[in-house]
Write a structure and sequence with these properties.
alpha+beta, BirA Bifunctional Protein, domain 2, Rossmann fold, eight-stranded mixed β-sheet, five-stranded mixed β-sheet, binds zinc ion
Amino acid sequence: MAKKGIRFVDIKEKLNHKTDSKRSIKTNKNITLKTVSKTKDVFGHNLKLWKLLEHKIEKILNFYQYNKIETPMIEYTELILGGILKNEAENKKQFFLVDKVGEKSIILRPELISSMIRSYFENKMQNQNQPVKMYELGQVFWDKTDSIFSQFYQLSLEAIGDESPIVEVEMINTIKKLLEEFKINNVNFEINNIGCEHCRDLYVKEIKKFYKEKKTKLCSKCKKALKENIWDIFNCHEEKCKALRSGLTNFEEFWCNDCKNHFSTIVEYLEFLKIPYEINSKLWGVGQFENKFVFKINYNEGDKKKTIGHGFRHDDLVKTISNNGKHGMGVTLDVNTLFKMIRDQKADKEDKDFSVFLVQIGDTAKRKAFEIVENLRKENILVKTNLSKDSLRAQIAIAEKEKVNCILVIGQEEVMRGEVIIRDFQSGLQESVSFAKLIPNLVKRKNQIN
Ligand SMILES: [Zn+2]
Ligand SMILES: [Zn+2]
């Protein structure tokens, strides 16, 4: 709005002189425009897919009475490293810890199960119907040396407050149905009974007795396992160790009646529900809080067997965390595999989602465009537009990039006549329709495509 004859020069000079040091914005060379290593941004198409995945998971799990819970991203370190990840506690570098002077240490959660157990007790869920079944889908933070990301999504299901083997059966059945929903059909559950503290103690004694004279014949890893985590012995693949091990009595012989019945009930139900399973006596779990029942979920991708999750009963963990004799059963799924499945399935469907681009020319048309966009959205027609652009050519260029089905054009003249031009993107054919007939016309086109 500058008028001829008015001089701004003096004021400008004064301003510059007075406020120069405050106003000038210099590039801060210490700022790196990069995400922290092993993290990434999620946006656009991928973010849409994540939301779709979330929605799908919620639909299925609600149906099987697993209620969604959202716990904080931070927890007290002792809850997690004093419990479920006790074995990992020594290697603190792989976790994100906040240690403030005089305050309890806080951890960016590396897993979700501990938080759900904490919440169960903190929110007195013991007073609800048991078991309390819940699930959480959320970001966790764990910087393992061999993993690509240190912040990633995890999905965990948890059932607390019931010792019945039906809890296991229901959980496995729910997971099978969930995976089927993601078109992962050839699933197989590897299962094992790993006993309770009672029968495990007896077996540990037996193992120690068995190796007492034979220790010297073992590899160094097995020797270490005998002293530290005895169950690691079963993970050794060295021929000499395997040969020696074949003489050891099977754990089955030491199962107590309670564990025996628990396991056989699960097997009976899996048979009844026609859920494919395989008993793997070498499946031991990884921590020290698994008891009675562990399972691993595998599926075949081509001729490759892939593991998509692990589940385990963890009554001992619940007792450790809460000092209370409750029971718990949980499973954690690799949600990235689910994401990949949904992305691949969506890839060929992507072009079929009906959408239009609204081009407007002139101020009157721009105002009308706002109204049309809202009306189309109400009818669930995906409408794209760029109201800040005025030129026809610029808007058409955007529409072409968006790969829409139809372009709607509205200018001054169209507004006067109460019409919109619809141009079919594929055929190039166009027609003018009245405002009143626009929605029925587009709905018809949408139905023809889907
Ligand atoms: Zn037992
Ligand atoms: Zn060995």
